Amino acid sequence: MARLNVGVIGVGRLGKVYVRDLAGRIPETRVVAVADPAAALAKQVAAEFDVPKSYTDPLALIDDPAVDAIVIVTPTHTHRELVIAAVDRRKPTFCEKPPALSLQEIAEMKRAIDTSGLFFQMGFMRRFDTGYAAAKKQIEAGRIGQPLVFKATSRDPFRPSLEYANPSSSGGMLIDMGIHDFDLARWFMGDVRSVAAIGATIAYPELETVGDIDNAIASLTFTSGKLGVVDLTRSGIYGYDISTEILGLEGTIRIGYLRETPIMIMTKANGVSHDTVPYFMERFRDAYTNQLQNFAQNVLQQRETPITIDDGMEALRVGVAATRARESGKTVMVADVTK
């Protein structure tokens, strides 16, 4: 079997998981180098997964002739420079979401990708979750008839750090959390025409110190005239609760689960109870692996990318529109969001 020699840039919490999967769980890949500005961390991860090289300079990894393809799992503000460098050096690239926090930066990335003609794949892992992938096939097969309404809920069990939540680095809750749901909305229903949104800081008042919120609801109108709603919360204290429902003319599809372990305890004293999904790494563990394997297979078999830079740009555009709608109290046309 042909194998793709991959270099991973960024080996923090998610990056380390990516190295693990690419090094040992995906038969089409081998990791030949990792890079992270934290030298000790880069060396530690390289040693743990038998990766021969570690770098502190990501550009050095990109320039390494042993590296055939690049996987970028770094903070969002670094994506533009790294993606452009990778495609300039003719190396197929996978980049975690969002591509950037600026539409102008994404436009620069898109120009570089289009000019090079090189393979590029965005990382929206929910599309590779078993439930979401099955739902997409059922809808395309006409199982529920014409889709009419999209409903999505994303509930984190706790708030992020204030440093992370700061909109200057995260984009704010409607972008940081909402971008997955906005991508799914487009995937299932088509482009979004307009957005109205409300939001507030009602569970964690300390988030106000950095200008973020902890609960939000966005109402979507698609270009087809169909409807959607996305509700987000950072205060789902009982567990990590991700669910989506598509109402069709002839039926409904519901995606998601809350119980992590297939067991319920039923007693007279405590009633019925079960555990819940702890967090995103548990809920989408297989989806992360599936998307990386898909990336490798696409490159090796010269297939087209299933998730383009345009998908990343349009999901961000909806997130920016939702943010502006919340701040202004007015409905925002997505086409009017140009920067």
Largest sheet: 7 strands, mixed
Give the helix level as a range of percent.
25-40%
| CATH topology description of the largest domain | Dihydrodipicolinate Reductase, domain 2
Radius of gyration (Å): 20 Å
The CATH architecture of the largest domain can be named as 2-Layer Sandwich
The number of domains is: 2
Number of strands: 15
Question: Can you identify the CATH superfamily of the largest domain?
Answer: Dihydrodipicolinate Reductase, domain 2
Shape, per Cα inertia axes: globular
Adjacency order of strands in the biggest sheet = 12-11-7-10-9-8-15
The CATH class label of the largest domain is Alpha Beta
How much β-strand is present in the residues?
15-25%
The structural class is alpha/beta
Short characterization:
The protein is an alpha/beta fold. The protein has helices at 13-24, 39-48, 58-63, 79-88, 103-116, 130-140, 162-165, 167-170, 173-176, 178-189, 280-283, 285-300, 309-328, and strands at residues 4-9, 29-35, 53-55, 69-72, 93-96, 120-123, 147-155, 192-200, 215-222, 227-233, 241-248, 251-255, 265-267, 271-273, 332-333. It folds into two domains: 4-118, NAD(P)-binding Rossmann-like Domain (Rossmann fold), CATH 3.40.50.720; 127-283 and 315-336, Dihydrodipicolinate Reductase, domain 2, CATH 3.30.360.10.
